[in-house]
Design brief:
Elements: H1 4-18, H2 27-38, H3 46-55, E1 61-63, E2 77-79
Antiparallel strand pairs: 1-2
Amino acid sequence: MTGKVCEQIKQALLVLDSVEGSLKGTEVGEALLNNVKKSEPLKITTEEAINLIKESQQCAIGERVCRCLNKETPLTESVF
């Protein structure tokens, strides 16, 4: 709801677009990779989603994070 994840994605993309060559093994590259891994999506079945929701203490359902960056994509749901 705060937009923090979307802002971090935008910042990461700006860094990646501004750099020539590979960031692999660099301090900036490792920092980006660690931040991206925190939000890495998993594709799961409906049954898996139901079980996760039932077992969770907190749950949020919303649009895909990439939707804020690619508004022309079709609507889909995400579980956080």
